[in-house]
């Protein structure tokens, strides 16, 4: 089975479950727009692959039965649905055709309820039935009578021996509010929306609470009245005609129609309409042209429905992709089966962050709801756990950068990469860290804000920031950095200009370099100018630098030449040349290992600062004791390094003794 057909069969199963949930429960599993979009994808596949379809009744029952049984009312004239169009251009073509045939058009809302038929005999209501599959429906006369307050259904129709009126049974917004409140008061769960409420109300054998509903009439089979006379006649009989629900209903040119469609869409979008509706219906006014145009097996040719673009859609999540953004933030993107939402087809949408995914328990393989935030940005809103088949597992992301493989900073809601090779934000965060320039106060959030505001385009730009720029720096949720914090950070930036050359080299963030490499390069070349002029062979003379690392560093220096120039111009320490006749340094030629907590004069130094001190004194800092170790600075006797040094006969000194040894540095 191909992936395309697998998706098709999954869509069919999903649509059947959604259809059943709509008619058999108080809570739908997807929005109406999402269900319509799902049916469209199924229909498109079946048109392209007629020999691969599976058996279902999703299209044969456009209005849906109530429970799939008891369909015992035959419709002498089939209750057809309407063909749907998606574009205003298609509306324009339809209107032009109707006008060319001598008929203006009428507009009415596409009501979102339950299509039913009312039959009157000898002037009294005889039977009510659902549309069912369009040819046979279910008798709901008794269920209709159980609705406490039913508007638009006259008990008697004077002067009519036999009359059938078709329309939409629905709950207006006020009907829904009152009925739902009564339902909750009776101890039952609230309905999710008016359409779900009317289906659940009519389906129930007993309600146990007061309910309200409205019937809007839109057709009298066999009527030969034009639309305007039809509306007047229905009103006189006590019905509410659908083509009387808009202020203006008759149009004789396509421009006026399109303008009215857009105006109604705006009103609908802003909840300025009393009835649930998802579109608008355009019909020919002149009854005489309807028989000439006829109908297809499913819809008349003299009417059409335009559905406003769905703001939401339902699809299947196939993957969750992590990436590093320009600011170093880790993004989570859902990849799903393509779906049409609000005018465009999308296959990817943001999942915000891991906390969002985890709180909503969104899993790969889930059916998810997709929407467009502010009509632009695709987002995944939620998943539907009730549709899982057991194969979906909780999402457990890797905690390393998808670009460099380096561990991520997961201490905040927004995960970040601190690997300078990943992004500008990561580079800035790395450069200001304690082992580099040590600029206290610039954390991940502020680093990201500096990048997003374009105040910082590389690490050299940090040294041109003003207190005013920092004070007004925009952080999240409308916050600014503020004057006190800005002044403190500005002071830290000024102090960072004097950081040792080793730290400046490390802050460059060149691939496969780090603080140890930075110290060794600084000790070997002593100035940034000497380092910048070194070729690959000269770089390999530094301990631990092979051909590949030397090439990468040389390429990095070339790439960062403008940044190095800016750092020098800003007054950042670029090192100083040591005189040829300089006296020997206290640790020349020695390999030194530090273990345990430092005390006395060294107590305030971090391990990296201890290593810097060792290398300024001419030594080589190492992390493990071996035969090559010259000295162990030990703050804790009895440790594994202390035992190893004792076994090998390595000299061991206390922090206080070591401080005396290097006091001239």
Topology:
Elements (H helix, E strand, L loop, with lengths): L2 H22 L7 H17 L24 E2 L9 E2 L2 H13 L4 E7 L2 E8 L2 E7 L5 E2 L3 H5 L3 E3 L10 E9 L2 H13 L8 H10 L8 E8 L7 H11 L12 E2 L2 H16 L7 E8 L5 H4 L9 E5 L4 E13 L5 E12 L2 E7 L3 H6 L7 E7 L3 E7 L24 E2 L6 E2 L6 H8 L12 H9 L14 H5 L11 H14 L4 H7 L7 H11 L2 H6 L2 H4 L7 H13 L1 H9 L21 E5 L11 H10 L3 E3 L8 E4 L5 H9 L2 E3 L1 H7 L4
Parallel strand pairs: 2-12, 7-9, 20-21, 20-22, 22-23
Antiparallel strand pairs: 1-6, 3-10, 3-11, 4-5, 4-8, 8-9, 11-12, 13-14, 13-16, 14-15, 16-17, 18-19
Helix pairs in contact: 1-2, 3-8, 11-12, 15-16, 16-21
User: What would the CATH topology of the largest domain be?
Assistant: D-amino Acid Aminotransferase, Chain A, domain 1
- Mean pLDDT over the full residue set: 85
Instruction: Give, in spatial order, the strands making up the sheet with the most strands.
Output: 2-12-11-3-10
Q: What global shape is seen?
A: elongated
- Helix content percent band: 25-40%
CA(first)-CA(last) distance: 74 Å
Low-confidence stretches are 61-70
The CATH homologous superfamily of the largest domain is termed DNA ligase/mRNA capping enzyme
Q: What structural class is derived from the secondary structure elements?
A: alpha+beta
Radius of gyration: 38 Å
**Number of individual domains:** 6
Number of helices: 23
Query: How would a crystallographer describe the biggest sheet?
Result: 5 strands, mixed
Q: Tell me what the CATH architecture of the largest domain is.
A: 2-Layer Sandwich
SS elements, strand count = 23
Reading off the top of the CATH hierarchy, the class of the largest domain is best stated as Alpha Beta
Q: Bin the strand percentage.
A: 15-25%
């Amino acid at each position: 089975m191909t992936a395309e057909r697998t998706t098709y069969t999954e869509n069919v199963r999903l649509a059947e479950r959604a259809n059943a949930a709509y008619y058999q429960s108080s809570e739908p599993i997807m929005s109406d727009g999402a269900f319509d979009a799902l049916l469209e994808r199924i229909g498109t596949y079946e048109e392209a692959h007629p020999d691969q379809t599976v058996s279902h009744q999703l299209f044969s029952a456009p209005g849906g039965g109530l429970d799939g049984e008891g369909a015992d009312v035959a419709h002498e004239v089939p209750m057809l649905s309407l063909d749907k169009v998606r574009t205003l251009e298609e509306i324009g073509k339809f209107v032009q055709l109707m006008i060319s045939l001598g008929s203006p058009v009428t507009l009415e809302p596409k009501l979102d309820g339950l299509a039913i038929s009312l039959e009157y005999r000898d002037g009294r209501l005889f039977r009510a039935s659902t549309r069912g599959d369009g040819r046979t429906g279910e008798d709901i006369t008794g269920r209709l009578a159980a609705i406490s307050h039913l508007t638009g259904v006259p008990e008697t129709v004077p002067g009519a021996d036999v009359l059938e009126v078709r329309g939409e049974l629905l709950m207006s917004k006020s009907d829904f509010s009152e009925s739902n409140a009564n339902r909750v008061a009776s101890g039952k769960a609230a309905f999710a929306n008016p359409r779900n409420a009317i289906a659940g109300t009519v389906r129930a054998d007993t309600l146990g609470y007061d309910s309200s509903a409205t019937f809007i009439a839109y057709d009298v089979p066999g009527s030969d009245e034009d639309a305007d006379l039809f509306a007047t006649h229905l009103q006189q009989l006590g019905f509410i005609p659908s083509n009387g629900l808009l202020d203006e209903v008759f149009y004789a040119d396509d421009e006026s129609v399109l303008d009215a469609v857009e105006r109604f869409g705006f009103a609908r979008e802003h909840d300025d309409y009393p009835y649930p509706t998802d579109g608008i219906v355009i019909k020919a006014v002149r009854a005489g042209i309807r028989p000439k145009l006829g109908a297809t097996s499913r819809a008349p040719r003299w009417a059409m429905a335009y559905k406003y673009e769905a703001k939401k859609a339902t699809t299947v999540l196939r993957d969750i992709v992590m990436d590093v953004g320009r600011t170093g933030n880790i993004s989570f993107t859902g990849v799903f089966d393509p779906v049409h939402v609000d005018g465009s087809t999308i296959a990817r949408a943001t999942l915000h962050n891991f906390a969002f995914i985890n709180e909503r328990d969104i899993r790969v393989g889930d059916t998810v709801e997709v929407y467009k935030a502010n009509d632009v940005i695709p987002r995944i809103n939620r998943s539907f756990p009730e549709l899982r088949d057991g194969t979906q597992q909780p999402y457990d992301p890797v905690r390393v950068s998808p670009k460099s493989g380096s561990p991520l900073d997961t201490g905040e809601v927004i995960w970040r990469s601190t690997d300078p090779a990943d992004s500008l934000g990561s580079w800035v965060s790395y450069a200001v860290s304690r082992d580099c320039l040590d600029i206290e106060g610039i954390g991940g959030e502020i680093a990201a804000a500096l990048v997003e505001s374009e105040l910082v385009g590389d690490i050299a730009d940090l040294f041109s920031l003003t207190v005013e720029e920092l004070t007004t720096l925009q952080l999240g949720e409308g916050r600014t950095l503020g004057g006190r914090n800005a002044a403190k950070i500005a002071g830290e930036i000024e102090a960072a200009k004097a950081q040792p050359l080793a730290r400046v080299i490390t802050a460059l963030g060149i691939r496969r370099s780090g603080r140890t490499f930075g110290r060794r390069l600084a000790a070997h070349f002593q100035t940034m100018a000497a380092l910048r002029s070194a070729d690959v062979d000269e770089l390999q003379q530094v301990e631990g630098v092979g051909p590949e690392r030397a090439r990468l560093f040389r390429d990095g220096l070339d790439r960062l030449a403008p940044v190095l120039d800016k750092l020098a111009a800003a007054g950042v320490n670029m090192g100083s040349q040591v005189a040829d006749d300089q006296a020997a340094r206290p640790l020349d030629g020695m390999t030194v290992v530090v273990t345990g907590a430092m005390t006395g004069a060294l107590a305030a130094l971090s391990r990296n600062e201890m290593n810097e001190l060792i290398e300024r004194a001419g030594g080589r800092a190492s992390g493990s004791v071996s035969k090559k170790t010259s000295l162990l600075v030990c703050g804790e006797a009895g440790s594994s390094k202390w035992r190893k040094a004792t076994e090998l006969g390595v000299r061991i000194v206390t922090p206080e003794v070591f401080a005396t040894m290097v006091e001239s540095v």
